[in-house]
Design goal:
By secondary structure, the chain is mainly α. It contains two helices and no strands. Helix 1 packs antiparallel against helix 2. The longest helix has 24 residues.
């Protein structure tokens, strides 16, 4: 895998994991995981537009 692919996978895993921790705090782990994953996707979209043009 290329460095960019590893970066994308790492960001998605990290944000999803962080979201599950938030979800555990609010009592809804699934909702937190989905939120974390969507934040990761949004962050990747934002960095992709800025750095990979």
């Amino acid at each position: 895998m290329s460095g960019r692919t590893l970066f994308i996978v790492a960001v998605l895993i990290g944000s999803t994991w962080a979201g599950s921790l938030v979800g555990r705090q609010i009592g809804n782990k699934f909702l937190g995981t989905v939120f974390g994953f969507s934040v990761g996707c949004y962050a990747l979209g934002a960095t992709k537009k800025q750095t990979f043009l």
